[in-house]
Design a protein that fits this description.
mainly alpha, Four Helix Bundle (Hemerythrin (Met), subunit A), two-stranded antiparallel sheet, 4 helices, membrane, transmembrane
Length: 212
Amino acid sequence: MQKRKLTAIVTISILLLLIYGKNLTERQSFKSISKTFTEVYNDRLVVEGYIFQISDRLFSIQKLIDHCNLDYDYSRVINEIQGHENGIMELIIDFENTNLTAEESSYLTDFKKIIQNDLTIKSYDLLYSDSSGVNSNQVKLYDQKIALAKSDLDNLSKIQLDEGQKLISKAKVQINRSQIWAQFEVALLIILIIVIYYFLFKKPQNTMDPFH
């Protein structure tokens, strides 16, 4: 009888340790899943918002440079362009504070150089003068630089999609693994119930000696 109880205690203890270990693993798995979805939001969805805002400001700069609106008062155009450029630089700083891949960092650095070095307009005379009108050559040059900047943004946006898909795939693997662990826990609990019943509640059968 003592041996039977000892066997029961050892078996139940092992099963409880397995369940406890499973719970620890499950806890780490949930933390990992939570971290993954946080990365999707902070480093991909939020960044895509930055890219959209930057693109919008870049489009506004191009409109001002190209003189698309003939009724517009261009006397303050330099200040407006600088305002958009400053806004873009603020968004770039926020962008740089996210978790960047090496490819992202390269495109973002190139984009930043274009904004800082190639699109800074010191004088409105570079774009337009009363005597000769719009400086077509200079406007074309700025348009080429803006096209390069847009290309960088398109590549950055594509990276967000690719990296986001990778993170979602990673989360799916973690969720599937978590479901397997949950099924394993159910199996352990069933085994535990059977063991408890067998060792503690089922009375041992006495064998009758037919000769006594």
